[in-house]
């Protein structure tokens, strides 16, 4: 819908601003305009200075040599994930894990004297048995 007349609250605000504008004399208005322009110019200078600094920082970062290699990263990931390319060094112990030639024995149990043996037995009921609505 095309409106040719502003909404009532917008029109009221516009009339209020026009009345305020009519009360200010020309010298005061010009001073306010000059102060406004000065503030805007200062803000623009700050923005331009920051932009120039960011651009020089970005340019200096692109001139740095690359510190990583995609192929080396892929080789490292393959070695860590699948063991590809890992060789046993002579004189080194085998990696921990099950060995086919040595039977696995459970480690000896050490008596734990720091904890008291509990003589209290608990009876935990299922949550469904405790439901008062009996579904």
TrEMBL record:
<feature type="region of interest" description="Disordered">
    <location>
        <begin position="85"/>
        <end position="135"/>
    </location>
</feature>
<dbReference type="Pfam" id="PF10232">
    <property type="entry name" value="Med8"/>
</dbReference>
<protein>
    <recommendedName>
        <fullName>Mediator of RNA polymerase II transcription subunit 8</fullName>
    </recommendedName>
</protein>
<dbReference type="GO" id="GO:0016592">
    <property type="term" value="C:mediator complex"/>
</dbReference>
<feature type="compositionally biased region" description="Polar residues">
    <location>
        <begin position="112"/>
        <end position="122"/>
    </location>
</feature>
<comment type="subunit">
    <text>Component of the Mediator complex.</text>
</comment>
<comment type="similarity">
    <text>Belongs to the Mediator complex subunit 8 family.</text>
</comment>
<dbReference type="GO" id="GO:0000978">
    <property type="term" value="F:RNA polymerase II cis-regulatory region sequence-specific DNA binding"/>
</dbReference>
<dbReference type="InterPro" id="IPR019364">
    <property type="entry name" value="Mediatior_Med8_fun/met"/>
</dbReference>
<feature type="compositionally biased region" description="Pro residues">
    <location>
        <begin position="92"/>
        <end position="110"/>
    </location>
</feature>
<keyword id="KW-0804">Transcription</keyword>
<dbReference type="GO" id="GO:0006357">
    <property type="term" value="P:regulation of transcription by RNA polymerase II"/>
</dbReference>
<keyword id="KW-0805">Transcription regulation</keyword>
<dbReference type="GO" id="GO:0003712">
    <property type="term" value="F:transcription coregulator activity"/>
</dbReference>
<comment type="function">
    <text>Component of the Mediator complex, a coactivator involved in the regulated transcription of nearly all RNA polymerase II-dependent genes. Mediator functions as a bridge to convey information from gene-specific regulatory proteins to the basal RNA polymerase II transcription machinery. Mediator is recruited to promoters by direct interactions with regulatory proteins and serves as a scaffold for the assembly of a functional preinitiation complex with RNA polymerase II and the general transcription factors.</text>
</comment>
<keyword id="KW-0010">Activator</keyword>
<keyword id="KW-0539">Nucleus</keyword>
<dbReference type="GO" id="GO:0070847">
    <property type="term" value="C:core mediator complex"/>
</dbReference>
């Amino acid at each position: 819908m095309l409106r040719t007349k502003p909404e009532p609250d917008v029109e009221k605000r516009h009339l209020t601003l026009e009345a305020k504008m009519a009360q200010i004399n020309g010298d005061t208005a010009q001073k306010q305009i000059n102060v406004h322009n000065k503030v805007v110019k200062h803000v623009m200078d700050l923005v331009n200075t920051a932009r120039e600094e960011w651009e020089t920082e970005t340019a200096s970062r692109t001139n740095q040599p690359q510190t990583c290699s995609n192929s080396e990263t892929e080789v490292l990931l393959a070695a860590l994930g699948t063991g590809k390319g890992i060789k046993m060094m002579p004189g080194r112990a085998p990696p921990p894990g099950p060995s086919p030639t040595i039977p696995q024995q459970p480690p000896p149990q050490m008596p734990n004297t720091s904890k008291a043996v509990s003589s209290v037995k608990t009876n935990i009921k299922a949550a469904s048995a405790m439901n008062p609505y009996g579904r």
